[in-house]
Amino acid sequence: MTDDAGRSLILRGFNTASSAKSAPDGMPDFTEADLEREHAEMGTNFVRFLISWRSVEPEPGRYSQDYLDLVEERVGWYAERGYKVMLDMHQDVYSGAIDSHGAGGNGAGALGNGAPAWATYTDGLPVLDMPRWELLYLNPGVIRAYDNFWNTTGRHPELAEHYALAWQAVAERFEDNDAVIAYDLMNEPFGGSVQGPAFEAGPLASLYQRVTDAIREVDQDSWVCLAPQAIGVNQGLPSGLTPIEDPRDGHPRIAYCPHLYPLASELGSG
User: Fold this and answer.
1) Domain definitions of the chain by residue range
2) CATH class label, 13-266
3) What would the pLDDT profile of 89-143 be if each residue is shown by its tens digit?
4) What sign does the dihedral 150-147-241-219 (CA atoms) show?
């Protein structure tokens, strides 16, 4: 990634922030004063700012301009200090509408974050508490929610289109914002009952192409960042993700953006 003069951007910063995942308004517990302190003490110049599908599209086809106003306000805090911003459509365990009883709801039992309740279909399958949060992905209800999103079940082809159009609404808001340089299309995708190259080269690549095409209808310049599946790749194994075509004029602006979480470090050792 480069600046307007063609110089490489060396970006260093944080995810901001985990507290946004469960906040009713989707905003992190992070003030402008917190950013000022971070800037002074840490010397950061970049943020991967968490947004959520549930907040962008609280009802089918309705995009919350109030929520996007809040995001834009915080992007402004960063812009005033010369930061660059990646907007990350975050999810873990699919949705906060999945609770430990397998039913819809956003109460104390919520286990995940990301998708709105109206887009969450567990089909009544069980969801049990687990000793580590990563194991929540093994719950039948969680797997079914993902399978319905990816339309592995053949029952919900509309969900991918909703997701793409939600991204288009975000891109339309920020396409002329110089601080926002990248869109991270999905945090750590999980394939449900389909894993490995069959998932990455299949449903995941299909969704990424659909979202990229939707974004390019309103934003020709921002980078599109693609995360591979988390399982295995987070520990350094190869990805089966296939190339995504960029319909923009000029050179493509598609970035491969894996995470690296070696299991030993994740568990707290060296």
Assistant:
1) 13-266
2) alpha beta
3) 999 999 999 976 543 433 334 689 999 999 999 999 999 988 888 899 999 999 9
4) positive
